[in-house]
Amino acid sequence: MTDMEFEKQIRILANGMEYPRTPNIAGDVTRRLRSSIRPRFISRKLAWSLTIILVLFSSLMLIPPARAAILEFIQIGIVRIFPQPATPTIEAVTTATPQSIPTPASAPGSDSQLLFPFLDNIAGETKLANAQLAAPYPILLPTYPPELGQPNHVYIQDANGVMTILVWVDPQQPELVTMSLHFIPTNSWAINKMGPVVIRETQVSGQRAIWAVGPYPMAMRDGNIEITRLIDGHVLIWADGNITYRLETGLSLEEAVKVAESLQPIP
Amino acid sequence: MDESQLIQRAANGDTTAWEPLVVAHQEAIFRFAYLLLGDPDDAEDIAQETFLRAWDHLKRFDTARPLRPWLLTITSNLASNRRRSIGRYISALTRAFRDDPVPPNIEEKSLQRIEADHLWKAVKQLTFTDQQIVYLRYFLDLSVTETADVLRVAEGTVKSRLSRALDKLRNIIQQDFPVLTEGREP
After folding, report:
1. Taking the model in full, what pTM does it have?
2. pLDDT tens sequence across B80-97
3. Which chain A residue's Cα is nearest to B100?
4. DSSP bridge pairs for A125
5. What total of structural domains would you count in chain A?
6. Is A32's CB within 8 Å of B52's CB?
7. Packing angle between helix B155-176 and helix B144-151, nearest 10 degrees?
8. Whether the predicted interface score ipTM is above 0.90
9. How far apart are the CA of A168 and the nearest CA of chain B, in angstroms?
10. Residue A27 to residue B23: CA distance in whole angstroms
């Protein structure tokens, strides 16, 4: 196919694009112009998020243990962890965070349910080679456990920087995520992870690391309202240079550290 | 009353003159924002803000120029900022976890639309700059001159950028969406 034929083909394909119905922008703009007060530029979704966050934050602040917890946090790379000293009877929530790929729960007492039925709907799926081209940092792959192999899914998301997410699924149940590894560049939006039940400080290749056991929030959306849902799970967080790593897994701490320390550049 | 007269009236504060201009261009602006951001709510926010920002700066607008490219420039800038904003970030993450608001009905969805979706996914793998130029030229069907006007670059620059973007797009399609070109070789 020549360049001209390819261009023509693209134009034909683009003409088939289906767009949502155009809303009545003129009406809304005119109304806003005629109003003496122009609302600050803020999206409805963001407004909902901020409202929910504010309400929940305020609620937590009314409870002394929670207030104490909120005032202190542990920071690893760009991740801030707000410990929850008491048994989390309060559903601690936070802003939507890049805990995009919940892993199956393996915390004691948790249900081994399919926690991630929406794998096909995650934005930004790509191939490993393309992700490496897009990411301005080396994407590392675990060489432990030896049988792990390459990730089953690779995503890149714009998080004020290229965030890479590698996902491994259960070969017998492809809808069940067994492990995910997030590469989060320093300039990304800060991650606030509130309410992990167990936090342990550890090391990954001599670097300070944090091991946190759920629940952790997963952002969801229903219509125009964003909500968070708590998922039990384990996460190992450490930073190296400009990248913060998050390893979500059902493995034990010791095994997770082995995975983290086995990271090697893509062969 | 032609566009430039409406703009002049609007620049003097006449909202009734601005409304028909918004009506005339809202679809292109909304669609461009939708293509860039991939979310109808985000696109609506950006489209509204585009017309509000343009209204604020109408006095400085050269009425000899067509309005649409200028509006598209504003849309592009706002969308670019939005992609970096926390609102966009939250949207992207939450979108990852929600069901498709309009679940595609494969049986009813025409092959043409499915192919267009694949093309869109391929274009999204390009850089933002490359995406812009592809959307303007092929999705919104702007001429090279209009595209140059939107991007504030020379027409020759549009052509060279477009050529590079198409090369990249061709590679992506060949690798990830070969169905878009299969059986179409001359």
Report:
1. 0.49
2. 877 755 444 455 554 444
3. A121
4. A155
5. 1
6. yes
7. 100
8. no
9. 17
10. 9
